């Protein structure tokens, strides 16, 4: 059976930061059949040094992770400093953790590369019962990745995770696996512990503003026109922003919403799902999106409503606790949108909102916790694997008995 621990800090020296995390491991000497170190780091750390120290201390462990604009750890750790690190260690019996990855993910090949990763993962262990997926925000059409994994593992396989990001410049992100630092990576971790169960919660606090508009021309994940006009100029006009606005400035304020099927409104605590662009093509005046957007889709612009974020989060956590049915969390993996970090709260606010998750779920115990302020979240909704933006998403691992 799998065991978990976590640690994190804001130590500036990369080697010392990783060593300090590893010093908190309760596992002692190597000897597990399988071991994985899952790390989240902000962009300022020396990634080679982090991996070097991790492998030196745990030579048999697989080191997997990614970058974000901030991280979240146990005991209320919340940091968006340029050098911050959080680590979760997982170990268990032989073959209870298996990994697979691609280092050449693109918008054009998201399905094919994801299919290859999924097939490789299943070949290593056909008894996988849940999958952690980490991707690059600038390369992955996430719903195509889900289709590929569901083709290999079935539609009921829980797939959860996130897309990595940078420090909100919108340029690149990094993923780590097999001693390598990737920019176009798609990483899958398969859990094959039959006693393990994942319970998910997801919530956003945005509200629609203004009148809706319609996607009148699109190609795969690229929106070319809204209401018959070039998408970029249409939105810049709606936002009263100059046409010459840089993408990194636009991504901080441009967030689209699309209507969900009515049957999901109560579960999601909202009628709309959110999508933030991952890039633009200025020649085509288009937006690149993290999922395929069909022509005819009605969309809205949105803005954050912090009172809804807090109230909705409290309801989500209450529902999560009820769904656990008394089971104690073994560990919590946590994906939070970058916009809910520095863009929404000051340090006190962020610490408060994290405590409103950790205190009810931890039940007075020290629960291993690893979270990332990333670009997007992979969280089930209505029993299906779904991509989200601007949410808090929690993945609570418990024993199934």
- As for the number of domains, it is 2
- Identify low-pLDDT runs: none
Distance between the termini: 13 Å
The general outline is: globular
The biggest beta sheet is recorded as: 8 strands, antiparallel
* Share of β-strand residues: 35-45%
- Number of helical elements: 9
- Compute the average pLDDT: 93
Q: Whole-number radius of gyration? A: 20 Å
Based on helices, strands and strand pairing, what is the structural class?
alpha+beta
The helical percent reads 10-25%
The count of strands amounts to: 26
Description:
Helix 3 packs parallel to helix 4 (142-153) and helix 8 (306-324) packs parallel to helix 9. The protein has two domains: 3-203 and 309-399, no CATH class; 206-304, no CATH class. Strand 22, helix 9 (347-362) and strand 23 form a beta-alpha-beta unit. It starts with a strand and ends with a strand. The protein is 25% helix and 37% strand. The strands form four sheets. Strands 14, 15, 16, 17, 18, 19, 20 and 21 form an eight-stranded antiparallel sheet that branches. It has a six-stranded mixed sheet with strand order 1-6-2-3-10-11, with helices on one face. Strands 5-4-23-22-26-13 form a six-stranded mixed sheet. With 401 residues, it is of the alpha+beta class.
